[in-house]
Amino acid sequence: MAVSSLERVIPELMDKHETTGKQTLLLHLERYQYAAKYIVPGTVADIACGVGYGSDLLVEICPESISRIIAVDFDKDSIDYARLKYSNPKIDFTVADAETFQSPVPLHNIVSLETIEHLPNPEKFINSISKQLVIGGRFIASVPVTPSMDANPYHLHDFTADAFRQMFIKAGLQEIHSFIQVQPYRIFSLLARKEKRTQDLRKNILGYYRQHPSKFFLRIQSVFKDGFTNKYLVAVFEKR
To answer: Is 151 exposed, middle or buried (0-12, 13-18, 19+ CB in 10 A)?
Structure first.
């Protein structure tokens, strides 16, 4: 059974009364709704699909444009849950690793939201998956562009908007549209860990800062620049 957590969003199991649960769910849904506007007709690979609610939403919004979605996640429990909850003849839920996934069909669209910050080698992933995209195909992706590694132990990288974009440009893709999501947070509420999703935040953040002082200064810089907000860049790239 898949469990809703800091890194696993399950809409029907999230507490809508908790700020972090409600805000996070709305952000995730907004990303998929945005992606649906830029889908070109044909196949879609939803990489790191989680429990499948996003793939299901894409088919709901774009029933005529999408011929097939290959929805990929490395977590078997999440894929099992998706197959039960979001069964749809147009969606193939598949257990696979994002970095080594090879599509059985040419891809017209790739959707990969809040994925690359978890991968050991995000640039390698983008290069590999982009080669499976047809000319004129689109890659829709998102990433945090404010620091996240300090608070979230599951994130392996911090990205700036420019660093994120450069990986796609190097892979031969061109940005055609983007937008920034802003998520305010209450620092003292997070530190108190009163909500379920905050239980997975890094336990000894002061110890982390002692070992990684550059991350402390990055956080201070972010607070001065952006205040107490998380920001996410969602962008559409096209293969020319």
So the answer is: buried
